[in-house]
Design brief:
Strands 1-2-5-4-3 form a 5-stranded mixed sheet. The chain is built from 5 helices and 5 strands, in the order αββαβββααα. Helix 1 packs across helix 2 (48-64). It has 146 residues and is an alpha+beta fold.
């Protein structure tokens, strides 16, 4: 189970994301599945500017709480920003990129962390993912003779 510190930090992250009108917030307790984090937090922005603003708001909030992200990637493009907040990993996506990568599917075995946010800001259902090939041979195009 995620530590109390990670759960508290996740709520602070959610609050900071909501300050910039993030959508589809979801957090997964990955403490039993990974050795590098307790929580995986995912949020969506509707534009590259909003994605950057959400990530910056999260980083500023952590700083005010006496913490700092250990690393930030993708802030320039504004399509997918990753913040390594030690025990919480934060992904802020634009809508198309979130749909394409569908991290909710990757972490579907992990229990959700309860967030104290309005219901309309939470992700209700996982983002649909198109059927993907199950093996490399299924991914290759069939030859005309096949």
């Amino acid at each position: 189970m995620a530590s109390a510190d990670a759960t508290k930090k996740t709520q602070q992250i959610a609050d900071a994301a909501l300050d910039r009108n993030a959508a589809d917030l979801v957090a997964f307790d990955v403490s039993e599945l990974t050795s590098y984090a307790d929580v995986m937090f995912i949020a969506t922005g509707r534009s590259d500017r909003q994605v950057r603003a959400i990530a910056e708001s999260i980083d500023e909030r952590l700083h005010r709480e006496g913490e700092r992200a250990l690393g930030v990637e993708g802030i320039d493009s504004g399509r997918w920003v990753l913040l390594d907040c030690d025990d919480v990993i934060v992904h802020v996506f634009d809508e198309d990129t979130r749909s394409a990568y569908a991290l909710e599917r990757l972490w579907s075995d992990a229990p959700r962390v309860t967030l104290d946010v309005p219901a309309e800001a939470q992700l209700e259902e996982p983002v649909p993912v198109p059927d993907a090939p199950h093996s490399p041979s299924e991914a290759r195009p069939k030859a005309a003779s096949e």
